[in-house]
Write a structure and sequence with these properties.
The chain is built from eleven helices and 22 strands. The protein has 385 residues and is of the alpha/beta class. The chain has two domains: 78 residues, Urease, subunit C, domain 1 (Roll), CATH 2.30.40.10; 287 residues, TIM Barrel. The strands form four sheets. Strands 6, 9, 10, 11, 12, 13, 14, 15 and 16 form a nine-stranded parallel β-sheet that branches. Strands 1-22-21-20-5-2-3-4 form an eight-stranded mixed β-sheet. A three-stranded antiparallel β-sheet has the order 17-18-19, with no helix packed on it. β18 and β19 form a beta hairpin. The protein is globular, with a radius of gyration of 20 Å.
């Protein structure tokens, strides 16, 4: 799919095997303006023109953790955010949360200002920021700035309050074992923010305490968290066995072995997994040197790492994540597509997207039989060829 300026039609139809209630069903979607107005299955009758056709039609993909892509980094530049939003529909993404690694107060304020200025740009919708930190475990910092993590207790509330007032924050990742974390989970939940547990060295009991306090997401299951052991199940054990939590997965075959993806699918079921990219600027771009916050990262086209070899986000795109869950984890195409659309939308309380149904925002992806993106519809605007 080529990146092009979107085309708008007052009324049109999309025909193919539709993802409806977890199944692929032959049918048609009628779009009028920015909304789906009718869904037909079986006998289609007269179909409004123009008509788009594809082997498979899914809801638009929702990426809850995108640090960048195509050489662009999420940060304080609104032009970069606009350009990123314009490129993402080519990967099936119609809604995304720009994600920020742990940083100081100035970086968060600049990113919130850029997000506010970039809102409404053509392309994938940006519904708020994902603050991945800084209230994380120093023992599970990964590629995050350890100084920002150490200073989090003193700086986090001063940063959060104005961002919450602006409505700029949608998800916060934190480690539940940090002092004051449980109180912050409750406060963020009351403010309408989804709390995700991640970059944590928590025990099984500490992870369960975070869930009891209101956390409902887990950030990139397996990566940067206390692992499972049969006598000390850790964060992984709690997250795999607690049905209250949706786990996010980076399905690139690098962050998690195929067997680990299969285990997650069997333990959580397709309704308990949301695919994410954790993509950095190197995603969708040639191998080379890029930036993640204040650090240089190196991409070989398969993974992105710090100079010492530490993984630093990913080079994954959401359409590739869908294909990987089929190829590596044994998910059906319908399951993988739902994990990229319906599940993440539900996980952060989006009620107007993530499903093909009348009244929903007209966010759709048109796929080939091999799950290659051919077209995308974002709020009724058609991208692609």
């Amino acid at each position: 799919m080529k990146t092009e300026l979107p085309r708008r039609h007052n009324r049109f139809s999309v025909v193919g095997r539709l993802l409806l209630d977890g199944q692929l069903v032959d049918g048609a979607v009628i779009v009028d303006g920015e909304r789906i107005v009718e869904v037909r299955a079986g006998e289609l009758g007269a179909i409004p023109e123009p008509r788009l056709e594809a082997a498979i039609v899914s809801p638009g993909l929702v990426d809850l953790q995108c640090n960048g892509g195509f050489g662009l980094e999420v940060g304080g530049d609104p032009a970069a955010l606009r350009a990123l939003a314009a490129r993402l529909p080519a990967t099936g993404v119609t809604t995304f949360l720009p994600a920020l690694v742990s940083a100081g107060p100035a970086a968060y304020r600049a990113a919130a200002s850029a997000w506010s200025a970039a809102g409404g740009a053509p392309g994938a919708a940006m519904l708020g920021l994902h603050l991945e930190g800084p209230l994380l475990s120093p023992a599970r910092a990964g590629a995050h700035d350890r100084r920002a993590i150490a200073d989090a207790d003193a700086t986090l509330d001063a940063v959060l309050d104005p961002l919450l007032a602006l409505g700029a924050v949608r998800v916060v990742t934190l480690a539940p074992e940090r002092p004051g974390a449980l109180e912050r989970i409750a406060r963020l939940g009351a403010a309408g923010v989804t709390v995700s547990l991640g970059h944590t060295d928590a025990s099984f009991a500490e992870t369960e305490a975070g869930i009891a306090a209101g956390a409902r997401l887990a950030t990139h299951l397996y990566s940067a968290m206390s692992p499972f052991a049969h006598r000390a199940p850790g964060a992984v054990g709690a997250l795999l066995t607690d049905p209250r939590v949706t786990v996010t997965l980076i399905a690139d075959g690098v962050h998690a072995h195929a067997a680990a993806l299969k285990l997650a699918l069997r333990a959580k079921g397709p309704d308990g997994i949301a695919l994410v990219t954790d993509a950095v600027a190197a995603a969708g771009a040639p191998p080379g040197r890029y930036r993640l916050g204040d650090q240089e990262i190196v991409s070989d086209g398969i993974s992105a790492r710090l100079a010492d070899g530490t993984l630093a986000g990913s080079t994954l795109t959401m359409d590739a994540a869908v294909r990987a869950m089929v190829a590596l984890a044994g998910a059906s195409p319908a399951q993988a597509l739902a994990m990229g659309s319906t599940v993440p939308a539900d996980a952060i309380g989006l009620r107007d997207r993530g499903r093909i149904a009348p009244g929903q925002r007209a966010d759709l992806v048109l796929w080939s039989a091999e799950l290659a993106v051919e077209n995308a519809v974002v709020g009724g605007a058609v991208f692609g060829q």
